[in-house]
Amino acid sequence: MKNDLKEILLTEDDIQAICETLGRKITEDYKGKDLFCVGILKGSVLFMTDLIKRIDVPLAIDFMDVSSYHGGTESTGEVQILKDLGSSIENKDVLIIEDILETGTTLKSITELLASRRVKSLEIVTLLDKPNRRKAEIEAKYVGKKIPDEFVVGYGLDYQEKYRNLPYIGTLKQEVYAK
Ligand code: IMP
Ligand code: MG
């Protein structure tokens, strides 16, 4: 698997340092609040488990599954809800946890849906941000790292459902796409 990578963008240590920094900020901002973390499946799972260990306030977690990508590397601009939350988020301070913010189509749809459920507050934390790719009007309050417009895999991020289990994040060699 490692042989398929062209370059490593974030090492395991880089990722842990980001989680530590974000966790500290989120801890400060959510003291005394009713924090409810919503992980967006499946990409955010690895990031979520590391991040919430660094958040030192009581919190609940749940997951949503949406699809905007259909196996390739380009967004189709369509979002479909595959799994909804299992409980009410009314009056909660909701924090959406996402792996990567690219065009913003996915997060725009999710925030509109969740905001309609009478939440007390709604914010986004994303591990990675590709600001140059943005199409929808949406920004994350907490960003782990801004990256250039390149397709990345690892640490939850996939190419055709593979590479999610890599402990670091990198770019794929051109020959992998040609397969
Ligand atoms: P958006 O709707 O264009 O912002 O896309 C967000 C979703 O697309 C993310 O949750 C990822 O699942 C996927 N995605 C965007 N960029 C990448 C990438 O570089 N590698 C892997 N998945 C990506
Ligand atoms: Mg995703």
Automatic annotation (TrEMBL):
<dbReference type="GO" id="GO:0006178">
    <property type="term" value="P:guanine salvage"/>
</dbReference>
<dbReference type="GO" id="GO:0000287">
    <property type="term" value="F:magnesium ion binding"/>
</dbReference>
<keyword id="KW-0460">Magnesium</keyword>
<dbReference type="GO" id="GO:0052657">
    <property type="term" value="F:guanine phosphoribosyltransferase activity"/>
</dbReference>
<keyword id="KW-0328">Glycosyltransferase</keyword>
<comment type="pathway">
    <text>Purine metabolism; GMP biosynthesis via salvage pathway; GMP from guanine: step 1/1.</text>
</comment>
<dbReference type="GO" id="GO:0006166">
    <property type="term" value="P:purine ribonucleoside salvage"/>
</dbReference>
<dbReference type="GO" id="GO:0032264">
    <property type="term" value="P:IMP salvage"/>
</dbReference>
<keyword id="KW-0547">Nucleotide-binding</keyword>
<keyword id="KW-0660">Purine salvage</keyword>
<dbReference type="GO" id="GO:0000166">
    <property type="term" value="F:nucleotide binding"/>
</dbReference>
<comment type="function">
    <text>Purine salvage pathway enzyme that catalyzes the transfer of the ribosyl-5-phosphate group from 5-phospho-alpha-D-ribose 1-diphosphate (PRPP) to the N9 position of the 6-oxopurines hypoxanthine and guanine to form the corresponding ribonucleotides IMP (inosine 5'-monophosphate) and GMP (guanosine 5'-monophosphate), with the release of PPi.</text>
</comment>
<dbReference type="InterPro" id="IPR000836">
    <property type="entry name" value="PRTase_dom"/>
</dbReference>
<dbReference type="GO" id="GO:0005829">
    <property type="term" value="C:cytosol"/>
</dbReference>
<dbReference type="Pfam" id="PF00156">
    <property type="entry name" value="Pribosyltran"/>
</dbReference>
<comment type="pathway">
    <text>Purine metabolism; IMP biosynthesis via salvage pathway; IMP from hypoxanthine: step 1/1.</text>
</comment>
<dbReference type="GO" id="GO:0046100">
    <property type="term" value="P:hypoxanthine metabolic process"/>
</dbReference>
<dbReference type="GO" id="GO:0004422">
    <property type="term" value="F:hypoxanthine phosphoribosyltransferase activity"/>
</dbReference>
<dbReference type="InterPro" id="IPR005904">
    <property type="entry name" value="Hxn_phspho_trans"/>
</dbReference>
<dbReference type="InterPro" id="IPR050408">
    <property type="entry name" value="HGPRT"/>
</dbReference>
<comment type="similarity">
    <text>Belongs to the purine/pyrimidine phosphoribosyltransferase family.</text>
</comment>
<dbReference type="GO" id="GO:0032263">
    <property type="term" value="P:GMP salvage"/>
</dbReference>
<keyword id="KW-0479">Metal-binding</keyword>
<protein>
    <recommendedName>
        <fullName>Hypoxanthine phosphoribosyltransferase</fullName>
        <ecNumber>2.4.2.8</ecNumber>
    </recommendedName>
</protein>
<keyword id="KW-0963">Cytoplasm</keyword>
<dbReference type="InterPro" id="IPR029057">
    <property type="entry name" value="PRTase-like"/>
</dbReference>
<feature type="domain" description="Phosphoribosyltransferase">
    <location>
        <begin position="14"/>
        <end position="160"/>
    </location>
</feature>
<keyword id="KW-0808">Transferase</keyword>
